[in-house]
Specification:
It holds the Pfam family Glyco_hydr_116N. With 906 residues, the chain is of the alpha+beta class. The protein has 22 helices and 42 strands.
């Protein structure tokens, strides 16, 4: 979680943690007879007092999340609408773009987060200073109107019934503005009681799962549609403008000339913006680059020197201007105008493209990782923004078709709208200044924007979304970093921040072994595993060696994600290593390494038995102190820790056999619900001080570590700065638990927990697209996709050609999207009487299958199976086991986009 930089430690020390722990008074009214003298009493209510009607509503499909002007819900909204690893460009609640974090400024300790600032927070007992990496934008969210770095927007002129009306597409000009919250496509609608038109603005960057190349463009597509809802014709003009963005940060008066040049192409009209420097040193600035504004209309009128403010009717009639110049320090804006006669009930649609190209990484980044010295991946692909806009324009049909196809596929589901929004939204982290892809092809990221370098293993291992949506990125991260820049070949240790650290982290090591197995499963064949097995084997050997006494429970003190070196046998680390060993066993069996398979099998067997015997206290799993150190150092000990059964959670994500007893696992999860989940964190954080504000009074969440036994020194004898973490609600960890609860059948608890996170990020409170933990757009939050995976009961093994679906609710009529190694589509099932129908409709790419596995509904008999690939009947056999049915085809099937596999059991 933290880098070697100790600045975050200072924050927690400023929270007077030592004073709090030594002198805090216990609360009255505890149900326990014994009162600790030096530590606050556990005060999370057992009865969550949730409204049954509200809980019931969580299962319903509902309506898409929509934020409205009339409810004052638009100010904080900022949906990333740029390509992966191309900086941050937000689309605001009223459709205007803002933030423009494209200038390579993010830098640890200097320019962190989306709005680097310090704010004040009242924690219940005192007022504290909160920095950007500690949750400033959670306490005081950035407001779009305050962060409009570049001037950009649209205006309409409508001539109707002898009147001429001009309106800009912004919040103030319309009676109602609505924002539909479906990543990666934002849809903004504008209506006015005095006009018979509805205007829609859609914004997105090309986003095609499994195709990182086409999804990583430094560009935004903005589609303006004007619907004439009257029975009379009208004249409509659309004016789109954008400021020349070059040199916005560093250019000084006299340092160069901004030029805006109109270019007409066969299928578009374009304005190309650049800065011609007088001083060569300006070319090294992080904001030296180019931008472009284009419209997919060759007849549009360019206004290269547009400066008609405010926009009025006459602005649309200005004569065309092909070229414009201005001093580097001056604002220089260009515009494009499209006009048309619109028939009754007709729709005018115009597609605009905004592109940027700033290929000078921050000097600090160049120091952190040598790959940054070669610039960015998009900088290698394109020489300037004009080429980017040209690529988008020339491939416009395919890019928009495939993006919209995914958008439709993701939302073609029986699962609730809110659930689909929250579990997918965090993949947008890849389209912010939190992640980069360098010219070498390497993927690299902060933990949160500008904070904690090095694509940290013990953070990114939670982030399931990347591997399922863009598996290429994770495979390259495994080979180029975990077995490359961060690999110690002599020992097998994986340095948890590669070049930016010198130590391994035990949870990062184990999690990365599990990720190797996942990346193998998300591959079309065995090439990835076979080529990397020797390195993986070495990494496994290192992990196994951390079990000093040979009982299958790692006990070597080593760094973990809570930024401390804990002593003893720690349930969540022990369990994670057991799961990793089980994944290693599966990989060893597949490559024919019998010796390693045997070693791992023995480790898993011993580890599971000992963990269940020695680390389970009858209700939940704990941390057994080191025999020599005792509880001298920081640890979770007898407390209820959020990640205590994380290994079993990981096992569900990759379809491994159980690594922990189900009854004990359920008991642990129920303890987390009982002791750590609260619908209102206010009373808890008022007494348990030192944490950062990722949930505040009036909001609910799952607290990291609680002390249900009311021990006086629950976290050890020595007070250290990391203890502040234990009192927080960090959404990435919460998503991990929600995913696990869903997998184990605790559906209601999983939905409630996910919904509380969703509501903490409601547009009326803060930006719905920015889950925060140690800076903005925190990578761990991409764990949310894991909850979607387990809701579908989805398992997949590409090389074996196996797939499974076992939905957790709405089983009689279920439908949801899925992604596999080389394709994606929609799965659906219907259960009627003794008949079960299962269908896989492939929408994109291809899918190779040998076997499908489904849950048997109730106690139904299954006397027969019928398999059809399109109109072709496929011979198959089936086998029932443990409430599941496996359907195996007599030959390997490969079907492609547009085809459907139908399996009927009955």
């Amino acid at each position: 979680m933290e880098s070697r930089n100790t600045s975050r430690r200072n924050f927690i020390r400023q929270g007077s943690l030592l004073t709090t722990l030594l002198f805090a008074k216990p609360l009255l009214g505890s149900s326990r007879a014994w009162r600790p003298a030096g530590y606050p009493v556990h005060n999370i209510p057992v009865n969550k007092a949730l409204d049954p009607a509200w809980v019931k509503s969580l299962y319903r499909r509902g309506e898409p999340g929509t934020y409205l002007k009339t409810r004052n819900e638009l100010s904080f909204i900022g949906m990333p609408v740029g390509g992966l690893h191309a900086g941050t460009v937000y689309m605001g609640g009223d459709g205007r773009l803002w933030l423009w974090q494209i200038y390579n400024e993010s830098e640890e300790g200097k320019n962190e987060g989306i709005d680097p600032k310090t704010v004040l927070w009242e924690d219940g007992t005192s007022t504290r200073k909160i920095r950007s990496r500690d949750g400033a934008s959670y306490v005081e969210p950035a407001i779009a109107e305050n962060k409009r770095r570049l001037d950009q927007g649209f205006a309409l002129r409508i001539a109707y019934r002898g009147r001429t009306i001009v309106k800009e597409l912004n919040e103030k000009d319309w009676d109602e503005v609505s924002f539909e919250a479906k990543y990666p496509v934002a849809t903004v609608k504008y209506t006015s009681r005095s006009l018979p038109v509805e205007v829609t603005l859609k914004g997105y960057s090309p986003f095609v799962p499994l195709d990182a190349e086409r999804s990583s463009l430094p560009a935004t597509i903005l589609r303006v549609a004007v619907h004439n809802k009257s029975e009379e014709p009208m004249q409509v003009s659309v004016l789109g403008w954008m400021e020349n963005a070059a040199g916005k940060v560093s250019a000084k008066e006299g340092s160069g000339t901004k030029t805006n040049v109109a270019k007409r192409q066969q299928n578009r009209t374009e304005l190309y913006y650049e800065l011609l420097p007088k001083d060569e040193s300006l070319k090294q600035a992080t904001d030296f680059g180019t931008t472009a504004l284009a419209v997919m209309n060759a007849q549009a009128k360019p206004l290269a020197g547009f400066s008609s403010w405010p926009v009025v009717s006459a602005s649309f009639d200005l004569p065309a201007v092909e070229n414009s110049q201005a001093d580097a320090s001056e604002k220089s804006t260009g515009a494009l105008v499209v006009s048309s006669s619109l028939k009754p009930r007709a729709v005018l649609q115009e597609d605009f493209i905004i592109a940027w190209h700033f290929n000078n990484p921050n000097p600090k980044l160049r120091e952190l990782v040598k790959d940054a010295q070669g610039g960015y991946y998009y900088g290698k692909r394109f020489r300037n923004a004009g080429e980017v806009a040209g690529y988008v324009a020339e491939n416009f049909t395919a890019l928009t078709r495939d993006t919209e196809l995914w958008h439709q596929t993701w939302n073609d589901t029986s699962l609730p709208h809110w659930f689909m929004e929250r579990t997918f939204v965090n993949i947008g982290t890849l389209a912010t200044a939190n992640t980069y892809r360098f010219a070498s092809g390497r993927f690299w990221g902060w933990e949160g924007v500008g904070a904690c370098a090095g694509t940290c293993t013990h953070v990114y291992q939670y982030a399931h979304a990347i591997a399922r949506i863009f598996p290429e990125l994770e495979r390259r991260l495994r080979t180029e970093v975990d077995l490359g820049a961060g690999f110690v070949k002599d020992t097998g240790a994986i340095i948890f921040r590669a070049e930016n650290e010198s130590r391994p982290a035990i949870d990062g090591q184990a999690g990365t072994i599990l990720r190797f197995y996942r990346e193998h499963q998300m591959s079309p064949d065995t090439t990835f595993l076979s080529q990397n097995w020797q390195g993986i084997r070495k990494a496994v050997e290192f992990m196994l060696a951390q079990d000093k006494n040979g009982d299958g429970m790692t006990d070597t003190p080593m760094e973990n994600t809570l930024d401390a070196v804990w002593e003893g046998e720690i349930a969540w680390i022990v369990g994670l290593c057991i799961a990793a060993a089980r994944a290693a066993q599966a990989m060893a069996e597949e490559v024919g390494d019998g010796e390693m398979a045997r070693i791992c099998s023995e480790y898993v067997s011993k580890g599971r038995a000992n963990m269940e015997q020695h680390l389970f206290n009858g209700e939940y799993f704990i941390h057994r102190p080191d025999a020599v150190q005792g509880r001298k150092k920081l640890g979770s000990y007898n407390t209820c820790h959020i990640d205590q059964v994380y290994g079993q959670s990981w096992a569900h994500q990759v379809g491994l056999p159980r690594v922990l007893d189900r009854a004990k696992t359920l008991s642990a999860l129920k303890a987390l619900w009982k002791y750590n989940f609260t619908p209102n964190v206010g009373p808890y954080i008022k007494t348990h001080l030192g944490g950062r504000p990722y949930a505040v009074s009036g909001e609910g969440g799952l607290v990291m570590n609680t002390n249900p036994l009311n021990e006086e020194k629950p976290f050890g004898e020595n007070v250290t700065w990391q203890l502040g973490y234990f009192h927080e609600c960090m959404s990435g960890f919460e998503h991990q638990v929600a995913a696990h609860m869903m997998a184990e059948g605790m559906v209601e608890e999983a939905l409630v927990l996910t919904r509380f996170i969703h509501d903490r990020y409601h547009g009326a409170r803060r930006n719905p697209y920015n889950e925060i933990e140690c800076s903005d757009h925190y990578a761990r939050a991409m764990a949310s996709y894991g909850t979607f995976i387990t809701a579908c009961g989805f398992e997949y093994h590409g090389p074996k050609g196996n797939i499974q679906f076992a939905p957790k609710w709405s089983k009689e009529s279920f439908r949801a999207p899925f992604t596999v190694a080389e394709g994606w589509g929609t799965y659906s099932q219907k259960i009627t009487g003794n008949r079960q129908e299962h269908r896989l409709a492939l929408k994109y790419g291809s899918l190779r299958l040998q076997q499908c596995r489904f849950e048997i509904a109730g106690k139904r008999n299954t006397p027969s199976v019928s398999v059809m690939l399109g109109e072709q009947k496929i011979p198959a056999t089936f086998e029932r086991q443990d409430g599941m049915i496996s359907v195996r085809f007599n030959r390997e099937l490969t079907f492609k986009q547009g085809q459907q596999l139908s399996i009927v059991l009955g």
